Amino acid sequence: MPLTTKNQLTITGVPDLNAKRFTINIGLGEQDYALHFDVRFDHQGDHRTIVLNSKHNGKFNSEKKEKHFFFQETREFKVTITFTHDEFQVKIPDDYPVSFPNSFGEDEFKFIQVHGDLRIKSFNID
Asked: In the chain, what are the domains?
């Protein structure tokens, strides 16, 4: 089921003990992410930071770093993602909103990937 501007993606999960990072990618495929949402507990010099980016033809663009970090190891979280033709809206724990441009300008994405140091409890497109 594709993610469209008419619905939302909700992911509930639990970061592993000693987690380094986990990532949610939404886009057209492995080489093209409209949204790269990278939760970094301790990765590549970033500590307790969310990195947002996009990837076109296999190359990442300029990243945005968000320091509002309510994720905790072994504590359940919920992330909700919606988007328009222009931007993504991500609600992280504590209902804090984070936005990122939809540089693809698409209204539908069929590629959704979640991976890293976490256990996924639920994954829903409503």
From this structure: 3-125 (2.60.120.200)
**Cα 49 to Cα 8: distance, rounded to the nearest angstrom:** 24
Q: Distance (Å, rounded) from C-alpha 88 to C-alpha 100?
A: 5
Beta strand residue intervals within the chain, DSSP E: 3-4, 9-15, 21-29, 32-43, 46-56, 59-60, 64-66, 77-83, 87-92, 96-101, 108-109, 111-116, 118-125
pTM, rounded to two decimals: 0.96
Q: Which residues of the chain have pLDDT under 50?
A: none
- Residue 83's closest CA among 122, 57, 56, 109? 109
